[in-house]
Amino acid sequence: MTIARLIAAFLASFLFVSVAHAASVTSPDGKIVVTVDVDGEGVPYYTVDHDGKHVLLKSQLGFDFTDENPMRRGFKVVGETTDSADTRWEQPWGERQWIADNHNELAVTFEQGDADHRRFTMRVRAFDDGIGFRLEFPGRANKPVTRIAQELTEFNLAEDGTAWSIPGGDWNRYEYIYSKTPISALSQVHTPVTMKLADGTYLSFHEAALVDYSGYRLWRVDGLRFRTELAPSSRGAKVVRTGAFHTPWRTVLIADSPRGLFESNIELNLNEPNKLGDVSWVHPQKFIGIWWDMHLNHWTWNSGPNHGATTEHTKEYIDFAAKHGFRGVLVEGWNKGWDGVWFGNGREFSFTEAYPDYDLKAVTDYARKKGVHIIGHDETGGNIANFEAQMDASFAMDQKLGIEAVKTGYVADAGGLISCNADIHDPCKGEVFEWHDGQRSAQHHIAVALDAAKYHVSIDAHEPIKDTGLRRTYPNLVAREGARGAEYDAWGVPKNPPSHVPTLVFTRLLSGPMDYTPGVLSLVGRDNTPIPSTIARQLAYYVVIYSPLQMAADTIENLAKYPKELAFIEQVPVDWSQSLLLDGKIGEYAVIARKDRNSDAWYIGGVTDSTPRAPAVSLDFLDPGRTYTAKIWRDGDGADGLGSQDAKHRIAIETRTVKEGDTLAIPMAAAGGYAVAIVPAKK
To answer: pLDDT tier at 99 (50, 70, 90 boundaries)?
Structure first.
């Protein structure tokens, strides 16, 4: 064969153009258009338009592997299918009872022109408020195991703007204060990452259904071109899969306002339906706990003279819970293993053996008689191998004792999860270290959910992998942390700033519930250091920060000092039929309304940053023709969340009669807020 023919054959293999025209899918309202094709070098790509404007320019797709050639170019389109859905489904618990799933779908199959003719399919779903897509691989008889070195999915933004983000892949996992920067100044950030383009379009990048795959961080390659950067693995390959598989859904929320982001259900809709069957044993609830005293250094997790988890202390908390209507009492530090260095270690933790001064059976028996349930605590110190070896016995013990929920913990550096040098169900053959957001961690969290479900135990994971909507598939994954919570108000330097929660609403909380642990009514941390908050703001958190497990985090002695404020915490629900953003700006303020799932009552929470404000919000969501009584807990005259303790605790409690269409403009002090209970008037 001549050199000319060799060159021609090479070009024919790698530089041909697709035999099919570009395929596209449009959202049901016609505003979002996703186009999929290959370029002149056979590189698969997609684009996204919104309201006739470019949002994502040509964004490439592809993969690098550890043991085979890349899948980057030389592709053609060999198949195209379409579908649509317009249904709704019910959450067993949640921020909304009913979820509408209305989307149009396009699936485009690409084939590479090499000797193996490798294929993958891009499946896109276009909703009115954004898109989700995943890449699907067929099984290969000649190569059953796929080892992904890197996923090359791009997000090539059409224009610059503002981003709210936390660093990705750093030591402290997801527990950072959000930064507000130009989009073009980002480096590697965790998702969800929220953006506002120069033309006013709001975007949020995340993923859904992270199952047996590595989580991704959004990495800016250059300019406004971003790429999925998969979390590392000890195995070299970041993802190892056998047979046919698909990536998680890559999601992009697209909206004209922050409200469009807040009210999106895309990530839930992209998860599989409930696999656990009857989950009536999952109980959304409020709880108190042996916790804040440890963060204040008054008590200790480890054994000794100041040990917090004693039988005596726990019974006192049970009595308080019974008196004030709290279903749960969290007990941390009850089990052996806390003595010594456990951070990023966890080798000595037992999840069935209590310290001698904590009588587990006596405590759970006492709680049962009082109508209270103990919430267990299984801190692993990041040692998932040790926990997996014991978790079945631990959850079986929990069920026997009537412990219906367990708070798990993974306190270690981001790359410090201790795993076995073997598959998840094999005996440990030596320790290796994995990342909190890697494939091994994704496998672990689902294994925990499934094992706990066998014993009707719900999970509240702290220092977890990020939330990607898996609570739809495994409804016992009721809550998780995965962000900077209230413990930083005890000892953090700095403490959570006033802008933190108004930012979380439009970033981390877009991915799902967060156990922020609110309700520190004393407003002081360790060594009496002041917390930037008013007391009314602490009440607002119960509406603003969604979680089906809500803690009144302060000590019972402090909670008892504020009976009028505690009354709101006792009253506010944790399970909702509707959730609405009434007004808000990212990082500045948020006003949220939620309707109780079990009554016709509504609750409103408002928080602001360091700027006092009184946004006017309409009550147009109330039933027409009905009269309601609104009880308001607001910042009092002279209140200041950045001022003295007296100024922080100034509160006004008042009652108004309201109806549909009325307007509320309740003033919020600096670092302040308010809470409102709106109950139908008695006839």
So the answer is: very high
Beta partners for 307? Answer: 300
- Give the closest residue to 269 by CA, choosing from 80, 96, 136, 442: 96
Active site residue 207: no
Token pair for 185: 């100044």
Instruction: Specify the CATH number of the domain 3-269.
Output: 2.70.98.10
pTM of this structure: 0.95
Give residue-wise pLDDT tens across range 656-670: 999 999 999 999 999
Residue with tokens 């990212």: 586
Residue 110, φ and ψ in degrees, nearest 5: -110, 145
Q: Which of 340, 353, 345 is nearest to 385 (CA)?
A: 345
- Residues composing the chain: 683
CA gap 135, 120 in Å, rounded: 7
pLDDT in tens, 544-593: 999 999 999 999 999 999 999 999 999 999 999 999 999 999 999 999 99
CATH for the stretch 495-507+516-540+563-683: 3.20.20.70
Contact 577, 597 (CB under 8 A): yes
CATH code for the structural domain at 275-482: 3.20.20.70
Q: By the 8 A CB rule, do 519 and 538 touch?
A: yes
Delimiting residues of CATH 2.70.98.10 domain(s) in the chain: 3-269
- Give the SS3 label for residue 4: helix
The one-letter code for the residue type at 240 is: V
Q: Which of 323, 320, 334, 329 is nearest to 556 (CA)?
A: 320
The answer to whether the CB of 532 falls within 8 A of the CB of 523 is no
Q: How many CB atoms lie within 10 A of CB 60?
A: 18
Q: What are the pLDDT digits (tens) for 220-268?
A: 999 999 999 999 999 999 999 999 999 999 999 999 999 999 999 999 9
Cα gap 270→672, rounded to integer Å: 36
**Burial group, residue 469, by CB count within 10 angstroms (0-12, 13-18, 19+):** buried
Compute the distance between CA of residue 48 and CA of residue 35 in angstroms, rounded to an integer. Answer: 7
**What's the half-sphere exposure (Cβ side, CA atoms, 13 Å) at 397?**
18
Strand partners, 194: 164, 204
Question: What pLDDT, on the 0 to 100 scale, is given for residue 683?
Answer: 74
User: Does 192 sit behind a cis peptide bond, omega within 30 degrees of 0 on the bond before it?
Assistant: yes
Structure tokens at 615: 């946004």
Spell out the alpha helix ranges (H) of 426-534: 439-454, 488-491, 500-504
The whole-angstrom separation of Cα 186 and Cα 206 is 16
- Tell me which residue of 559, 92, 487 sits closest to 326, measured CA to CA: 559
Instruction: Write down the pLDDT at residue 17.
Output: 38
Choose, from 404, 481, 487, 588, the residue flagged as catalytic: 487
Q: What angle do CA 350, 354, 356 make, to 5 degrees?
A: 135
Phi/psi at 318 (5° precision): -65, -45
| pLDDT of residue 7 exceeding 70 | no
Domain with CATH 3.20.20.70 in the chain: 275-482, 495-507+516-540+563-683
Q: Could you give the 3-state DSSP secondary structure of residue 495? A: coil
